[in-house]
Structures are given as C-alpha cells and as structure tokens.
Amino acid sequence: MDNLPIQVEGLTRFYGRNRGVEDLAFTVERGEIFGFLGPNGAGKTTTIRLLMGLIRPTRGSARIFGLDCWQDAASVKRHVGYVPGDVRLYEGMTGAQFLDFLAGFRRGVDPARRRMLVERFEVELSRQIKHLSRGNRQKLALVQALMHDPPLLLLDEPSSGLDPLMQSELLALLREERNRGKTVFLSSHLLHEVERVADRVGIIRDGLLVAVATIDELKRQRTRRMEVTFSVPVDLAQLAGIAGVQVLQSREEGRWVELGVSDGLPVLLRRLSELPVVDLVYAPPDLDSVFLGYYQRQEAIAGERAR
Fold first, then answer.
1. Sheet containing 200-205: which strands, arranged edge to edge?
2. pLDDT tens per residue, range 62-111
3. HEC profile for 187-198?
4. Is the pTM of this model over 0.90?
5. Which terminal CB of the chain, N or C, has fewer other CB atoms within 10 Å?
6. Quick one: 6-219 is in which CATH superfamily?
7. How far apart are CA 76 and CA 68, in angstroms?
C-alpha cells in the first residue's frame, strides 16, 4: 500500500437539488490524525459515507490507498476501521456474539488485541445489545472498528455518548495508533476534541471545504468571547482600540460588554486591571468563531479579486 491513505479530488454529492458536499479536494498522509471539523449538517457524514463507498458520488473521486471508494468498495473496506455517526447494532445479540460475528468477516483478528480493547473501553459483552446504554453501544462500535488492526480509521463523531473518562481514553488510544503508523480520519463538531489529537484539520461548512490547516494555524484563527461587567459605565473606546480585540455588544450604558479576543490578551488584561471590573467570564473558543475567521478572510480575498 504505497498510495496515500485518502485522496479526494472534486468530490461532489447532491441529493436531488440539495447539496451534500461539493468539490472537496484534500489528501490525508500516512501516520497522521486528520480532523474533519464542521457543525452538524455541514457534510461530514456524507463525506465519510462517500469514502466508505456507501453512496455514489455525483462527480469527482475519492481513493483509499489508491482504490476507488465506489468501484472498489469491497477492497477498500478491508483496509478500514469504521465507526458511523449513527451506530446501529444487532440488538438481539450480546456484545460478545456481535464481535464474534463481525470477526468472521475479517482475517486475522488477534484475540489478544480484541481483549485489550474490551478491557480498555470497559465493554459489557454478556448483555444483549438492546439492553445497553448509548455509551456502551458506542464503545462496542469502537472495538469492532479497531480489533482487526486496520491501517486507516474512519471515525464519525466517535466520542458521541461517551463519558469524559472514556472520551479521554479514546483520544489517548488514537494517539497511540498514530504512533504505530496508523492513519486516522476523525470527524467531529467539537473543536477542543480535535485540537487535542489532530495534526491537521479540514474545515467544512454547508458542504464546502473552507480550509485545510495545521492545528497551529487553526488556533491563530479562533476568537474567544469575553464578558465583562463593570461597576460604572466605561468608555468602550479604551477596549476597542486594542489590536486583536473587538467590542461585539454592550448593555447597560457600558456597564456590561462582550468582547471578541483573537490577540492582544496581555494588553487587554492590563487595561481591564485599571477599570472597575466586578465580574469577568472568558469562554473557551467556539467553532463558529473559527469558521467566521476563515469566511471573512475568503470574502476579503474574493472582494479583492473582483476589483
């Protein structure tokens, strides 16, 4: 397998007149975790279904290790561990029966590896799947995707339903898999989750690929919101004049203000220390602010070209 784990060119899928994804173009290198970020409904699941050969592209192509994802779908699946975004399992089976059943379709499932994964994710194998919680079903889906030790993982919102401890365990395991030379395509709408493990990210919104960037580049684009309450009205020009700081809104004649902070935090904090602050909330970065930064930059470039 000398070809790239994933190579996408002009990949497009329409559902009637509605766009699923359009003109996606990106590659994923061997031994990297590629985060695929976007809000719900952005086209993440459509992209993964195209990669798995579950739906046919309207145009364009997707290849996994040089194999066409639609024409060679059966061969593609031999190299992939897949967790769908909407996990559906055989509810009449126990967890153990389900894993045995799927192992019958795979060559060389190592019992020791399967046992390690079951213990690590604390999977309940003796109960029927219909009696398992959403989180336990998700853990079972993760084990079936990983137990045959595939070179590529396609994971659609894999932490969905997991408690925080299991989410951390999953991310730790993905780092270990990468260090073993595996490739991971991780779809998520959680910015903080992807930032913890990904080497690069693709950002998708409304079916269009907004950008492909490294994690460092992504961090430089994000904006964090800060809410500040003062004991008396404040001249907001003192804050708006700081590079990297925007006044998003204010209320109560300037006693309350919401700021967008992309840079200049040390200067802002020094300025606030000189003002009558009674409360301050500094929110974690949100995905929408990252999108907004990329969209604004794209619109500015398009505007320059139109002149």
1. 80-83, 152-156, 183-188, 33-37, 200-205, 208-214
2. 999 999 999 999 999 999 999 999 899 999 999 999 999 999 988 779 99
3. EECCHHHHHHHC
4. no
5. C
6. P-loop containing nucleotide triphosphate hydrolases (3.40.50.300)
7. 8
- Has residue 39 got a pLDDT over 90? no
Residue 269 to residue 280: CA distance in whole angstroms: 11
Strand duo 256-261 + 245-251: pairing: antiparallel
H or E stretch including 250? strand 245-251
Q: Give all strands of the β-sheet with 277-282 in edge-to-edge order.
A: 245-251, 256-261, 224-230, 277-282
* CA 305 to each of CA 47, 67, 287, 299, 300: distance values in angstroms, whole numbers, following the listed order: 30, 38, 27, 10, 9
On the CB side of 273, how many CA atoms lie within 13 Å of its CA? 6
> 100 and 115 in contact (C-beta within 8 Å)?
no
Contact (Cβ atoms closer than 8 angstroms) between residue 197 and residue 36: no
The two tokens of residue 242 are 């700081």
Domain regions of the chain by residue span: 6-219, 223-284
Greater pLDDT, 188 or 292: 188
138 close to 146: Cβ distance less than 8 angstroms: no
Query: What DSSP assignment string belongs to 145-187?
Result: HHTT--SEEEEESTTTT--HHHHHHHHHHHHHHHHTT-EEEEE
